[in-house]
Write a structure and sequence with these properties.
This protein is mostly helical and about 130 residues long. The chain has one domain: 3 helical TM bundles of succinate and fumarate reductases (Up-down Bundle). It has 4 helices and no strands. The radius of gyration is 21 Å and the shape is extended.
Amino acid sequence: MSKKNRPLSPHLQIYRLQWTMLLSISHRITGVALALGSMLLIYWLAAAASGPDAFKTAQSVIASLPGRLLLFGWSFALFYHLCNGIRHLFWDAGYGYELATAYRSGLTVLVVSLVLTLGAWAAGYGLLPLGN
C-alpha cells in the first residue's frame, strides 16, 4: 500500500467533545497534577527536616495566596482522581457502560470530588465539628 492510499486515523478535529472524553482527559491531567503537586509536599517536608528557618520560609510560601490556590487545586485533583479511579474499577468489573450510567457516574464523580475538597478544607479551617 503506497503512502498516498494509506488510511488516516481519525483525528481530534473529527470528534465532537463528549462528556466522557472530557472526564477521561481530566483524569489524566489530574494524575500529572498530583505528581507535580507532590513536589510541593516534598519541598515542605525537606524544609521541615532542614530546620526552623527553612520551614518558616516554606510555610510562608505555602500560606501565600498562590500557595493556597495550588494546594486547593492539588486537593481537588486528589479527590477527583480517587473518585474517577473508583469509577474505573466499576468499569473494570463490567458495570456502568450504559451511556446514561456513564454520564450520571461522571457527574457524580465531579460533585463528590467538589464536596470532598470543600469538606476537607472546611475541616482544615475548623469549620466542621469533627469532635474533640
